[in-house]
Predict the 3D structure of the following.
Amino acid sequence: MSAGLARQILARRVDNEIRALNEYLGMSIPPAPEGAQFPMEIRITLSNVPARISRDESGDRHEFALSISGEYPYERPSARWLTPIFHPNIASPRDGGFVCAKMLESWSFGSTLLSFVKGVEQLLADPNPDNPYGTESCMEAARWHAANRPRFEASVSYGGRDV
């Protein structure tokens, strides 16, 4: 660790953030053992979170690995997708599983693992086809998501008269 936090302080911070993740996700990720080394990897499974796994199929169970370096929190964590996904901002596992970190451009020392996971959750719920990751599968997903955005129609009635 060059400019990072002292090892004991970093481990304590990560343990505190894992507790917050456990509470939010309803999981039981164990605390880092004494003498744990970095990088540290946490595998997270999200259930009941709908996202496309192909053009024709949605899935509600997704898994990714969250990697925390010894430079954390000065360096944001990275995520690698492990389950099939059809998403403009998340590469399929066969393309490396990279998660577009554009949502994390504002990462700072005060950011947390929980804010990262919530960002991934938001990315699943609201794909951004206007700014796809550069893989072929992401470009295809961007075209599909752009063509299949939710459509809304509305009408207004004033005093019982349709306008």
Observations:
- The chain has three helices and five strands.
- Residues 7-140 form a domain with the Ubiquitin Conjugating Enzyme fold (CATH 3.10.110.10).
- The CA atoms of residues 54 and 156 lie 37 Å apart.
